[in-house]
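Good day; I would like, with your permission, to put a structural problem before you. A protein sequence and the structure tokens that stand for its backbone fold form the material at issue. I would ask you to consider whether the tokens describe a fold that such a sequence might reasonably adopt. I set the record out below, with my sincere thanks for your time.
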Amino acid sequence: MPRRVRDFRGLTEMSRLRLLHAIQRRPGRLLRDLVEETGLHINTARDHLRVLEDEGLIASAAVETGRRGRPPVAYSPVRDVDESPVAERRIQDAKARGDLIRRVQPELDRGSELGSSTIHQLDALYEHLEDAGLEPVLDEQDLTVGLKPCVYEPLIVEERPVVCAVHAKLVRDQLEQVDGPLELRRLHPYIGPKRCEIVLGVAGEKTRASRPGGVSSDAADAELASQADAALREWQRRSARVLRTGPEGAQRAS
């Protein structure tokens, strides 16, 4: 059975990712500008934008021009839940589900250590990553999230800078939509052959995770893609050496 267009929050279409990437880089883009940049037909672009808005990832607003007729519409990323009822509902639902899980399984409740606002940021982020098909594994002690981007592999091969940059910015947006101290610190592309990791931190505190390397959350798209390429090549090199010499030979080579 084919997947619906909104499966994985609608993020597995390359054309849709290009639109979202363009909006993330320059908020307030008009439809005509997005069509010109992406090369999409205007009706196709309009349909993709509707999916992104229905998912609470972007918001549209009419631009007052002072002229007669229908005003043009500008599109921006959602960074505040006041900008999107859909995003606000998702945040509230994620908080409610997280609170319910912690009531049922109190051993999972880290609220006394992290604080309720941090916990609710993690609730919202986890739900977004899960719905986006990234299979998140959360470490609340080190404040890291392991990701498995298998569903995006065909897109990563086609256009790695766009895919990596879009998802990094969506993580930052999700954290900003919930009042709390958590922020995105670093990204580690390919800590394993099919696994990445994002590193979070509490504002004003040192990063808890100790993994060296990675790339800053503020890195340019090209740098993020370059780091991902280098990390993937390193894993491929190690995997090839394991096949030739076994695990001990690969360890010596590293």
About this structure: The chain has two domains: 7-77, 85-253. The mean pLDDT is 88. Strands lie at 29-30, 58-62, 73-77, 137-139, 144-147, 182-192, 195-202, 215-216. The longest strand covers residues 182-192.
